[in-house]
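User: Hi! I'm working on a homework problem where we have to compare a predicted structure to a textbook description. Could you give me the structure for the chain below?
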Amino acid sequence: MLKSKIPFQNIESIPQLIKDFLNEEIPQFSSYKFSLKNAIPKAEEKSKSFSKEQRNILVNVFKEQLKTLQLTDKQSQNINLLSQESTFTITTGHQLNLFSGPVFFIYKILQTIKTAEYLSQNSEKNFVPVFWMATEDHDFEEINHFRTEQNFYQIKGKSGGAVGRIVIEDVSFIDEFEKEFKDDVFGTRLILLMKKSYQKGKTLTEATRNLVHELFSEFGLLMIDGDDILLKNQMAEIFSDELQNEVTHHFSKENVDFLTQKYGKVQVNPREINLFYLSETRDRISKKDNSYVIVDKDINVSFEELAKDWSKISPNALLRPVFQEKVLPNIAYIGGNAEIMYWLELPHVFERFKLPFPILIPRNSMLFLKEKTLKRIDKSGMNLECFLGDFQAKLNEKLVQESSLKAIIEEKETLLKSQFLELKEKSSLTDKTFRNLVEAEEKRQLKSFERMRKRLLRAEKIKQADYIDFLEKLFYEIHPSGNWQERVINFSNFFAENGDSWLDNCYQEMDVVNSMLILMEN
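Assistant: Happy to help. Predicted structure tokens:
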């Protein structure tokens, strides 16, 4: 049951860049914010840069990559629609986390599906939802596990190469998973889904593709693997330009400098060359004199050697968006806040590569809380927003806000400031050393008020220890492991009790037009 929706702009912990982007307070980025006004012209722009040949290649890639799956009518229809010039994609992407990893994996896909549906219903064009599988990532330790409310599950494998190519050999975790969920209403469905997806001899790409297909095939979602020679060959000119001219490094500089100056840092710092070399491992490429070095292997290669086989070249986080937009008729990307922030470094890079820059949509967040937790929030005297920002600061403020001493301290401090202001004004009539004395004395006496405030807070913490314990336990009910629920818990805990109706419920409440935290009763 939906309880409330909180705009990202009202949540303290959402990065300021995201808030400014959503409020259209950065003029050069305003056209990238999602709206029908921006989406339809973006489709017209994309149609001019995406050829009939590219569409034919894409259709063939989808048919080949998905041939082992039993496609739904809607999936087959969407593949066929992509051959038409009036059809475009809405895309999200993610790593190949074991059994999807944290539950936001599910949310971002559902939002992508609903956004495509919304645009199709509100225009004369067709929009197809696509999930881009990050098969070429090499940080296996980051994706080889997931957590439920009760357990931690992990798979073994060799790190360092493209994770999508890793062959599953260890499925021992499935036995423990079965024990945890066998008695739940939809536990059998979860267990069968796990066993069908994660089989010995399958790659992690195959496992993730099957998992996503089983969950979202009825929605018409298509899954794509960028580790494909037909897709990589379309990047020949871009890969060449990046290797020879360090395009991403140079052409992102203006936005990197702007974002650094305004917000203190950027999400990802560009390298001189933003490409990896794929073999049994995935290794960074750097330039040395007139040749290239495969870093960590200390192998020198020429440009001609690298250009012989583009399937062995892999884009990093900053060039992956370029790859995606080159091979898809895409007009919008749905991602987490960190993703959106590094995409915003890239508009001039896209210009250099003659690619339209897409609309960017910070994905919705969802938070499922039990009725008893919601009642505790009401009882706490603090609203949900207090638990979503700097909780400790809000807690400290709450502890002293009703203290009569706090009011007296503030009253006397204001009076002191007023008295010293009068003294400083009069001191201008005499020697300046007297004014210096007055200012020093004011500073000394004001420090005593700061000490009193700290001592008052310490006293209230002792006095209200039981209340603090209540609030801190409530915080961890809302934030398992001290983090946002959606970044910790796997979808299985929600699916086990409600099955596909949970997916449908999330889909129905997902907000397309605005980036929101959606609070639901579990």
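For your comparison, note the following. The chain has 25 helices and 15 strands. The chain has a mean pLDDT of 94. Good luck with the assignment!
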